[in-house]
Amino acid sequence: MKTLTLATSALALSFGTAAMAGGHASKGAVLETYSDIAEAKYSDSLITAERLQAAVDALVSSPSAEALEAAKSAWLAARVPYQQSEVFRFGNAIVDDWEGKVNAWPLDEGLIDYVDASYGGPTDENEAAVLNVIANASFTLSGETVDASAITPALLEDTLQEADGVEANVATGYHAIEFLLWGQDLNGHGAGAGSRPWTDYATGDACTGGNCDRRGEYLKAATDLLISDLEWIVAQWAEGGDARATLLADEDAGIAAILTGMGSLSYGETAGERMRLGVMLNDPEEEHSCFADNTHNDHFYNGVGIQSVYLGSYTRVDGSVVDGPSLSALVAETDAALDAEMQAKLSAAVMALGRIKTAAESGFTYDMMLERGNAAGEALIMGGVNGLIDQTRSIERVIAALGADGIEIEGSDSLDNPEAVFE
Is there a contact between 2 and 358 (Cβ–Cβ < 8 Å)? Predict the structure, then answer.
């Protein structure tokens, strides 16, 4: 796996160099490349989600251990292009307004299905924390009686998602599907992901967990909704789509959007909220994909996604390449040394995240790394954090070199005000 990680970084770096060698890169051309890559990443997310949908349909129609494993594998594959698309957040309002429907976390999974007794009950912050929609065809929410006899995409999206205004009431998207495939990870800092049995989707007396038919309904509804949400975002980045048109309408604002997304995903979101905070709290629930133990891949492909936007190149799931005039080339025309620095920092961050990925896939899982006193785990995670922080400092220098004024990079208390984390 280490060889693959290094090859991924080197391949992306070679594409960026080729793009830079192509001569003058206008801002408009750079924005066109960025839009093409966005369309491609979201299209790949849709393609892999459709494969997940087929696997889910097969699991629900003919439950078996093999069908559940196939659905899990399809979910893992679907995360690869999607995580590379997160770099389009923060700078593009259309993406930010949409993103919570598909990738919100963490979630109070008791809203959806049964949970272990150690999970507890309703809290002052969330009365619906253990609502268990799958077990209840009718329930009261926000003082209203809800008919949930049919579990549909509309029920999930319009009634359950962020119910009562609570962000932890995540009823839709990748992580709701993840929970329905893996179940809770009750291993703490020990090895092992969630271990939901395939019989949670079985029929008749073979059903475990109760309400197997409704669990299948929920899983299918959530997956169908993910497909429709991804179809919508692909259309926004296609020729004539609103996201593309908005980006291209103002070249300076467009370049600022690219840099805002790169810096904010690198610093406040991934280095801070997703990585450093977990190290500070030593909490396995701070994993981004805590049910599947896939967090190492989430972080790695975030890093690859940031790198690909700067280098103006993306390798699709079918092996084809989308590339063109890059931000790298634009920076090189102003300051070649800064471009070389930026490329090197991006590569170093991907390498550091790759070391986490390699360790996790060799059995040293991310939740094990988070255990208090685990020096090796903390060193691996903080290596990734520091690599992301370091590349963000170079992004800030790029912002200054291009005169991209008014950019605000998302921060995190875990990085900027650590004492506040424990208040």
Answer: yes
Task: List b or e across 98-118, with b for residues whose CB sees 16 or more CB atoms inside 10 angstroms.
Answer: bbebbbbbebbbbbbbbbeee
Q: Look at the chain and count its residues.
A: 423
Q: Which residues pair with 314 in a beta bridge?
A: 322
DSSP annotation of 60: H
* Predicted model pTM: 0.93
Upstream peptide bond of 106 is cis (omega within 30 degrees of 0):
yes
Q: What is the C-alpha separation between 222 and 150, in angstroms, rounded?
A: 13
- Whether pLDDT at 19 is above 50: no
For the CA atoms of 47, 52, 57, 62, the dihedral, rounded to the nearest 10 degrees, stands at: 140
What average pLDDT is seen over the chain? 92
| CB 144, CB 189: distance < 8 Å | no
Look at residue 7 in the predicted model and tell me its pLDDT.
39
> Greater confidence, 90 or 284?
90
Residue 3 CA to residue 423 CA, distance in Å, equals: 43
DSSP string, 197-235: -GGGG--GGG--SS-HHHHHHHHHHHHHHHHHHHHHHHH
Helix axes 336-361, 327-334, angle to 10 degrees: 140
When pLDDT is cut at 50, 70 and 90, the band that residue 23 belongs to is: low
Residue-level pLDDT at 3: 34
* SS3 per-residue string spanning 247-267: HHHCHHHHHHHHHHHHHHHHH
Residue type for position 57: D
Beta-carbon contacts of 33 under 8 Å, excluding residues fewer than 6 positions away, are 19, 312, 323, 324, 325, 326
Residue 1 confidence (pLDDT): 30
Return the H-helix or E-strand segment holding 314.
strand 313-315
- Tell me: pLDDT of 18 over 70: no
